[in-house]
Write a structure and sequence with these properties.
2 helices, three-stranded antiparallel sheet, alpha+beta
């Protein structure tokens, strides 16, 4: 007998959070000229009231034991991997103390140099 999930996230919520993440990435890359970031934060707060939020794993270390990411490896090395590009963020249900992954992040990882910076050839562009 299979267990039903405790909370089923509606498709519109995934779409909204994924698009908010994309807007935030673009604001970081191009600046927040019209103060749109404030509106994005308000929308994130509304969604957080429903216990949904996203994590941006950019520049985080990647180990094969991570279960919250679907990964493509860029480059030839599989040593000392870090997240260099985020295609979709990790979406979670819960709060900062305890949460459940309801959407795995989709990312590209590259081998970091000894200092921990991604190599230039595999670095993603926002």
């Amino acid at each position: 007998m299979s267990q039903q999930p405790l909370y089923e996230v509606p498709k519109w919520a995934f779409m909204l959070l994924n698009n908010l993440y994309e807007i935030e990435k673009k604001l970081l890359a191009h600046g927040d000229i019209g103060n749109i970031g404030r509106n994005v934060e308000k929308m994130k707060d509304i969604i957080a009231g429903e216990k949904l939020f996203y994590d941006d794993p950019i520049n985080q270390e990647y180990k094969e034991t991570r279960t919250d990411l679907e990964v493509s490896i860029a480059g030839e090395s599989t040593e000392n991997l870090i997240v260099s590009e985020v295609i979709k963020p990790i979406i979670r249900y819960g709060d900062d103390q305890y949460s459940k992954v309801v959407q795995k992040g989709i990312v590209v990882v590259t081998s970091a140099d000894p200092i921990g910076n991604p190599s230039e050839e595999g670095r993603g562009n926002p």
